[in-house]
Amino acid sequence: MDHLEYVLSILPFIASGLKLTAKVYVATLLFALPVGLLAAIGKVKGPKIITRLLYLYTWIWRGTPLLLQLFFVFYGLPIIGIRLSPFTAATITYTLNSGAYLTEIFRGGIESIDKGQYEAAKVLGMTYSQTMRRIIIPQTVRRVLPPTCSEAVNLVKETALLAVIGMPDLLRIATQIFTRDFNITPFVVAFVLYLIVSSVLVKLFGTLEKKYSIYE
Amino acid sequence: MTMIRMNNIHKYFAGVHVLKGVSLEVNKGEIISIIGPSGSGKSTLLRCMNQLEKIDQGSVEIEGIVVEAAGDVGTKITATPQEVRTAYRKMGMVFQSFNLFPHMTALGNVIEAPMLVHKLGKGEAVKNAEKQLNKVGLLEKKDAFPSKLSGGQKQRVAIARALAMNPDIMLFDEPTSALDPELIGEVLSVIKNLAQEHMTMIIVTHEMGFAKEISDRVIFMDDGKILEDQSPAVFFDNPRHPRIKTFLEKML
C-alpha cells in the first residue's frame, strides 16, 4: 500500500515530464511528415540543384549522431548569435533529424511504384501533380506505413535525449525523483509509460495498415 | 481525315537505333494492326504517338495539329501547349500490363480521369463509367478492386477506363500478351465490338487470326522500319516479302 501511495505521489511530476515529451513529439511529427514527403518528391522529381541539396541534407542528418545535432543547436547556435527557446530548438532539431529519415522512407516508397502507373495517368491526361496526389501518393502511403511506424516509435525513444540537454522531459523528471528519493520506482514508472506510448503507436499504425490494405 | 501522321520518325535508346525513319498515316475509322518480331520497334512506334517516348527526329501530327517535332524536318509546333494537350487527349491507350490503379475499384478507375481532367461531376462521371463498364460486360464488377479481377477482366476495365475519356483514337499495346490463353477471347471480342463502331484503332498484337479478321491495314515492322503496309488479304494470303513469309510460318 505504501508503494502505491508513493507512485501516486510522484505521478504529477512524472506527468509534467510526459507532457513535455508529448509536446515535442507531436510537434516533431507534425512538421517532419510534410518535410519528409516534400523532400522525397523533390529528390525524385526536383531540378538537379534541389536534388543535390536534399542529398546533402539527408547525408548530414542521417550520418551524424542525434545527440551531437542537439548539442549543436542548443549550445553551438547561441555562440554565433542564434538564440532559440529550448522547445523551438528541440522541435527544429528533431524535425530535421526525423524528416531526413522519413525522406528516405518516402523516396523509397515513391520509387517502388511501377512506372506503368505514371504512364496510365499520363495517357488519361492527368498532370504530374494530379498523378502524384491521386495515384502515386495513396499507393505509397500503404507501402511506407511499416517503416514509418518504426520511425515514429524510434522518435518516442529519441525524445529521451531531451534529458541530456537539460529539458524536464519524462526521463529527466524520473531521474530527478530517483536522485531525490534514491528509489527505483520512478524509473519503473517511466519504463511503463514509454512502453504504453510505443504500444499505442504500433496499434494505431496497425489499424491504418489494415485500412489501407483493403485493395490488396 | 488523317487522324495521325507520323513523319520520318527516328528513335534511339541508349545509342541503339530503334526506329529508323518510320512514316505512317492513319485515317479516321481505320483499324491498323502492327505486327512483327519482338524488338522490331512496334511498341516504340505506338508509344511515340502519345509521347510516352520522345522522338529524336521527325514529327507527329494528331488531327492536323503538330504535337511533336524534332530535328530538321521542316515542321514546327505552332499549336499552343493547351492545343497540344487537347490533341493528346484524343488518344486513349491500353497497355499490355493493364496498369489499373490498384487502390481504386473498377468504377473508381473509370471515373477518376473524367472527374480530374474533364472536370465532370461525380454523378455524371459514374453514369458514363457504368455505361462503359456495361459495354465491356463488367458492370456487376464495378465495386471490385483490381486484385479481385482476372487478367481478362482487368484489361476490359482498362479499356472502359480509356473509353470514358471519349477518345477519337485507341492505341492498344499488345493488349492480350499478358493473358492466359483462355482469357484472350473476352478481350479480343471487346475490341471487335469497338471495331464495329468504327473507332480508329492501332493495335500492336501477336494474334494473327485476330489481326487478319479485324484490320483494314496490316503493318509489318522489322528492324525499326515498316517493311509492309498492306490489306490483310494480301498480307496474310499472299505475302510478298520472304521475311514476312518466314515470320507468318513461325506464328501460324
From TrEMBL, chain A:
InterPro entries (UniProt xref) = AA_ABC_transptr_permease_3TM, ArtM/GltK/GlnP/TcyL/YhdX-like, MetI-like, MetI-like_sf
Q: What is its main location?
A: membrane
TM helices/strands, residue ranges = 20-41, 53-77, 184-205
Q: Per the database entry, which stretches of residues form a coiled coil? A: none
The record gives the membrane topology as: Multi-pass membrane protein
Q: Where, per UniProt, does this protein localize?
A: Cell membrane
GO terms of molecular function = transmembrane transporter activity
Query: GO cellular-component terms in the record?
Result: ATP-binding cassette (ABC) transporter complex
Q: Which Gene3D superfamilies match?
A: MetI-like
Which CDD domains does this one have? TM_PBP2
Any idea which UniProt keywords this protein has? Amino-acid transport, Cell membrane, Membrane, Transmembrane, Transmembrane helix, Transport
Which intervals hold domain ABC transmembrane type-1? 18-206
Q: Which family does it belong to?
A: Belongs to the binding-protein-dependent transport system permease family.
Name listed for the protein in its UniProt record: Polar amino acid transport system permease protein
The species this protein belongs to is Desulfosporosinus hippei DSM 8344
From TrEMBL, chain B:
Q: InterPro entries attached here?
A: AAA+_ATPase, ABC_ATPase_HisP-typ, ABC_transporter-like_ATP-bd, ABC_transporter-like_CS, MetN_ABC_transporter-like, P-loop_NTPase
**Under the GO molecular function aspect, what terms does this record hold?**
ABC-type amino acid transporter activity; ATP binding; ATP hydrolysis activity
A GO cellular component annotation here is: plasma membrane
Which named protein is this? Answer: Polar amino acid transport system ATP-binding protein
Instruction: Give the record's keywords alphabetically.
Output: Amino-acid transport, ATP-binding, Cell membrane, Membrane, Nucleotide-binding, Transport
Family of the protein in this entry: Belongs to the ABC transporter superfamily.
The organism's lineage? Bacteria, Bacillati, Bacillota, Clostridia, Eubacteriales
Spell out the subcellular localization from the entry.
Answer: Cell membrane
Q: Which Pfam families match?
A: ABC_tran
Superkingdom of the source species = Bacteria
